[in-house]
Design a protein that fits this description.
The structure is a homodimer of 285-residue chains. In chain A, the strands form two sheets. Chain A has a five-stranded parallel β-sheet with strand order 1-9-6-7-8, sandwiched between helices. Chain A contains twelve helices and nine strands. Chain A has 285 residues and is α/β, with parallel strands linked by helices. In chain A, 42% of the residues lie in helices and 15% in strands. Chains A and B meet through helix 3 and helix 11 of A and helix 3 and helix 11 of B.
Chain lengths: 285, 285
């Protein structure tokens, strides 16, 4: 598409994962994990800032198994409504993802449920990586792919798909949750602050170990963007394209629209718009 | 797509004209009209409930000509903002489309501007008919196509495209603006009431003469839906698919979700979602 209406001087390739079932890319990994395992009678358990939980609930309904989903207390209603709407049992625990994760693991130990991790399982990364497969098929001309990073399952899967090709994978992170930028600087996943407008989808405390093993060699760069840049990118997506993106879903675009990342001459840039689970009243003007 | 998340027991083909440039299908006809004529120095003039005006403004900017757009006073800000944002001169005249149309014709007579009619010009119908061309290419299995009707340019173009094929074209109209249902019953375009939640996009006083010549033979049926059914279809599109449709943009789907039209056994139904220019705060639960 022409980037003109977004206020950009270049053409863009947009991957509309915000129109996926459940409103984010997350069913890719959830289905792949659940279809790769023997599903116990207790079903599945997971922890999530919301989008992964909705995807697990959706996949569990499709596969006919029970799901228990642990969300931090501040999870937006747009997300918890989805989780319950797909028939999962919802638990609200803790202030951030990490506490919900511990609760989900304790529950799975008690019931025998299969854990579907939000980002740090090989099957989950491989599932999210199908975004890369489709991008390469649909837009073989892409030279750079911008992806928002929280726990890193999405960018880990995409970077693994493109490993060994000249395509450069760029991580975009809110200043409030700089998970991969910090890990790349420190040489290993380390705990980070969790804050800002995109914390409900990108607010993992640190990137996963599996994604980091991929990212340290196959993510070209990590770029930080401000909350204002994220809100501005949301507004532009609505104004120009009538797409509703949640803050985390607009974060990758924000690197371009704010100028935090400038494409080199001749670049053909693809941007993954990864989620839409927000109150639509918040995206307009 | 599976209609399950929309609460339907059948699979659907959705044509997402609500994601077009300017937020509706209207640039198709506007560009076709303007590229088929010699454009005078005075540029173009038009009247519109909003979506066609935005499309004319967009096309005029792309082609480097002046545009004056006449909208009824109640036109939503989401639409007038677009028109002015694309650089057209906006005039607010009258309570409904018809008064704005008279004002636009008077102005064109004065300046020599080319009239780009919202629906009753052959080039405009032919442009909108490219929706049919694309549908047939993308979904050759479709047996029925549901299209919302106001002035009828969109359904006229689509019905002309499919004329001579077994594909059945179904008009869906709000009870508040039953333009084609009335014309089919009376055997000619006749003035109708203009009211209800979709009046800003479907509130023409009557269908155009050109479309009626097509529709009387090539539109299979006209179905009426209530305002409540339209609002419900908007909510389902947001809840299940994260698509923002304006009332007129959700009207065709409302025929299915309300049961006003029941597909025959074996039907493969395509639904044209034709516009998204509304306040997104109005589409959620």
């Amino acid at each position: 598409m022409s980037g003109r209406d977004l206020g950009l001087g270049l053409d863009l390739i947009l991957k509309l994962e915000l129109l996926q079932a459940t409103g984010s890319f997350k069913p890719r990994g959830a289905f792949n994990r659940m279809l790769s395992a023997a599903l116990p009678a207790a079903g599945v358990a997971t922890a999530s800032g919301g989008n992964h939980g909705a995807a697990v609930a959706y996949a569990a309904r499709a596969l006919g198994v029970r799901a228990e989903v642990f969300c931090p207390v501040p999870t937006p209603v747009a997300k918890t409504t989805r989780i319950e709407g797909y028939g999962a049992v919802l638990h609200r625990v803790g202030a951030a993802y990490d506490e919900a994760r511990l609760a989900s693991e304790a529950r799975a130990a008690e019931t025998g449920a299969l854990i579907v991790h939000a980002y740090d399982q090989a099957e989950v990364l491989a599932g999210q990586g199908t975004v890369g497969l489709e991008l390469e098929q649909d837009a073989p001309e892409a030279t750079h792919v911008l992806v928002a990073t929280g726990g890193g399952g999405l960018i880990g899967g995409i970077a693994a798909w493109y490993a060994g090709t000249p395509v450069r994978i760029i991580s975009v992170e809110p200043e409030g949750c700089p998970t991969l930028a910090t890990a790349l600087r420190e040489g290993r996943p380390v705990p980070c602050p969790v804050g800002g407008v995109a914390a409900d989808s990108l607010g993992a405390r640190q990137v996963g170990g599996i994604m980091f093993a991929v990212a340290k060699d196959h993510v070209a760069q990590a770029v930080l963007v401000t909350d204002d840049a994220i809100r501005d990118a949301q507004r532009r997506l609505w104004d120009a394209l009538r797409l509703v993106a949640e803050p985390g879903g607009a974060t990758a675009l924000a690197a371009l629209t704010s100028g935090a990342w400038a494409p080199p001459a001749g670049a053909r840039v693809a941007v993954v718009l990864c989620g839409s689970n927000t109150d639509p009243a918040k995206v307009a003007g």
